[in-house]
Amino acid sequence: MKTIWAAYRADESGATAVEYGLIAGAMSVVIVVAVGTVGVSIRDFFFEKIADATSH
After folding, report:
1. Nearest-10 Cα torsion for 37, 42, 48, 50
2. d(Cα 28, Cα 9) in Å, to the nearest integer?
3. Is 28 left (phi over 0), alpha (psi -120 to 50) or beta?
4. Where are the domains of the chain?
5. Over the stretch 2-52, which tens digit does the pLDDT of each residue have?
6. d(Cα 36, Cα 41) in Å, to the nearest integer?
């Protein structure tokens, strides 16, 4: 029984998978925020140019 428990405690494959999952989740959040911010900036830029072009 001790050898089974020792082997179970030494197995870190699940912990590694969880760590990679957390890293992937954090990267996803950063990408979504960055794309959202850049998208709004690009939209505002083009809307301003279109408004300037049509107002004259």
Report:
1. -150
2. 31
3. alpha
4. 22-56
5. 787 777 777 777 788 899 999 999 999 999 999 999 999 999 999 999 999
6. 9
